[in-house]
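Here is the promised in-class demo. Please do not try to memorize the tokens; focus on the logic of going from shape to residues.
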């Protein structure tokens, strides 16, 4: 389930070879892989989606997680799944070019990292 960020980036790179539609999520994964966060957050891919968690987890896992989806027109959706009531889930949609910056904002809003770590 949990994969290394190198492996996740390879998965999304393969998707991009077949369809440039996934370029925004691929760029986000590469940014995470090359960032200070890569040793402090965990992730896995599921077909075309990315999941990010704070702690290393094992399959099956149904706890809190950030879902990142590539949408049409280079948009990304962040959806924090901490309940099965869809209307209660925190979510944002934005231009994919802002993915990494929005991820850092998510970390701040949900207190995944201390502000000093991000600065």
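The designed amino acids, position by position:
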């Amino acid at each position: 389930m949990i994969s290394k960020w190198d492996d996740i980036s390879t998965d999304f790179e393969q998707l991009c070879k077949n369809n440039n539609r996934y370029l925004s999520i691929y760029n986000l994964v590469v940014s995470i892989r090359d960032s200070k966060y890569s040793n402090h957050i965990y992730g896995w891919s599921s077909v075309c989606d990315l999941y990010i968690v704070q702690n290393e987890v094992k399959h099956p896992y149904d706890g809190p997680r950030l879902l990142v989806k590539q949408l049409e027109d280079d948009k990304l959706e962040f959806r924090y799944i901490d309940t099965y009531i869809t209307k209660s889930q925190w979510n944002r949609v934005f231009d994919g070019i802002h993915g990494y910056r929005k991820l850092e904002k998510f970390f701040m809003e949900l207190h995944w990292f201390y502000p000093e770590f991000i600065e």
